[in-house]
C-alpha cells in the first residue's frame, strides 16, 4: 500500500452516511440500475463482513458483503467496493477485499461472487464462472461474473439463480 498509512476496520452503523456519500461520488445515480445493486437493495449487507479503509479519520474506501443463495447454496455477494479516486492505485481496494475474504473464511463461508473485471479481482482469487452454471436475475455480462472459493471445491456442483438470502423464491 505504498507510503499511505491506511487502517482497515469493520464497518459500524455510524459509517453508513459517509459510505453512502462515497458511493454517490464514485458510482453516481446509475448504480441503482445495476443487477448486483438490485440484488443487494432489499437485503442488508453483513455488517460483520463489511469494512472501511481510513487514512487518519478520513474514510477513503469501503467494501461490503451480502448474503445470497446460488440455487440452494449459501454464498456471499461482494460489493460495492470503492476507493476515493485520489487514493486509488495504492492497494487499498485489494486490502479491503483481502480482509473481507479472510473474515468470511474464518466465519465459515465458502463462496463469494461478484460482477467485476477478472484482471483486477483475479489477484484476490476470483475466477470467471463457467458460462451457464449460475445466472443473475437481470442483465450481466457473463464474462464479468466471478467466483472465489473460500474452501477447496466449494463451487463444485453449484448452479442456479443468484438471489438475495431473504428471497425464498427460486
Written overview of the protein:
This protein has four helices and nine strands. It is of the alpha+beta class. Strands 1, 2, 3, 4, 5, 6, 7, 8 and 9 form a nine-stranded mixed beta sheet that branches. The N and C termini lie far apart (42 Å). The model has no long low-confidence stretch (mean pLDDT 88).
Largest sheet: 9 strands, mixed
End-to-end Cα distance, whole Å, is: 42 Å
Report the mean per-residue pLDDT as an integer.
88
Number of strands: 9
Could you tell me the strand content as a percent range? 25-35%
Low-confidence stretches: none
H/E topology pattern:
EHHEEEHEHEEEE
Short description:
Helix content is 22%, strand content 31%.
What is this structure's SSE topology?
Blueprint: E1 6-10, H1 16-27, H2 35-41, E2 51-55, E3 58-70, E4 73-83, H3 92-106, E5 111-115, H4 118-121, E6 127-128, E7 134-135, E8 145-149, E9 160-164
Parallel strand pairs: 4-5, 7-9
Antiparallel strand pairs: 1-2, 2-3, 3-4, 3-9, 5-8, 6-8
Amino acid at each position: 500500500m505504498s507510503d499511505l498509512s491506511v487502517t482497515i476496520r469493520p464497518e459500524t452503523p455510524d459509517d453508513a452516511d459517509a459510505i453512502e456519500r462515497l458511493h454517490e461520488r464514485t458510482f453516481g445515480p446509475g448504480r441503482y440500475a445495476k443487477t448486483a445493486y438490485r440484488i443487494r437493495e432489499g437485503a442488508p449487507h453483513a455488517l460483520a463482513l463489511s469494512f472501511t479503509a481510513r487514512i487518519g479519520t478520513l474514510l477513503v474506501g469501503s467494501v461490503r458483503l451480502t448474503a445470497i443463495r446460488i440455487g440452494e447454496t449459501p454464498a456471499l455477494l461482494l460489493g460495492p467496493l470503492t476507493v476515493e479516486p485520489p487514493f486509488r492505485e495504492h492497494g487499498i481496494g485489494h486490502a479491503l477485499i483481502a480482509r473481507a475474504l479472510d473474515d468470511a473464511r474464518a466465519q465459515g463461508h465458502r463462496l463469494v461472487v461478484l460482477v467485476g473485471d477478472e484482471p483486477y479481482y483475479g489477484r484476490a482469487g476470483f475466477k470467471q464462472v463457467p458460462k451457464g452454471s449460475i445466472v443473475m436475475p437481470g442483465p450481466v455480462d457473463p464474462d464479468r461474473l466471478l467466483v472465489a472459493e473460500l474452501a477447496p471445491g466449494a463451487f463444485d456442483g453449484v448452479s442456479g439463480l443468484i438471489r438475495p438470502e431473504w428471497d425464498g423464491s427460486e
